[in-house]
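Quarterly update from the structural biology core.
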Amino acid sequence: MKNLSEKPTHIAIRNEADNRLKNVRGTIAMARRPDVIDSSTDQFFFNLADNPNLDQTSRNSAREFGYCVFGKVTEGMDVLDKIAAAPVADTSKFASMPAQPIVITSVTRVR
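Predicted structure, tokenized:
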């Protein structure tokens, strides 16, 4: 999203936050709408710290259902820490945007 334009997404998938994986530092989880359990599409986030508030605590509501962890960073956390430390600025559309664009150009899937 270098130019901040929304890209087309795939259909939403089932939230598997009940997989018992925890949102701890270095894990990768699916982003979703906070009010809809099964709304994950193409977006994800890296946990830069332990985030137990994002783990599933119940199936009763979207807030308690949690965010599905599906991966783990095996190398390069130092790079993510540098990205997190980059200067930010508020814009008319977004708060805390990186002052300079940050682009991840390569990710490798490891089994």
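The chain has one domain: 17-98.
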